[in-house]
Amino acid sequence: MNYFIATIGIPIMSGREHYTKLCLESIIKQNFDRAFEILLVQHPDYHYKIKFNIPKNIVINQIVSGKSLSSKRNDILKHANGEFILFVDDDIIADENWLFNMITIAKKNDSDIFWGTAKPLYEEEISNNLIPFEMYIGGFHYDSNGILRRKGLIGCNFGIRKNILHRREKFIESLGRGSTIRGGEEVLYLKEYIGDKILFIDNAVVHHHIQKHRIDFKYIIYNQFNNVISQVYINKIIGEKNTDLGKDVVVSLAKSLIPQKNFVRNFILSIYKLFGYSKGMIKYVLFSGIRIK
Question: What is the CATH number of domain 4-214?
Answer without folding.
Answer: 3.90.550.10
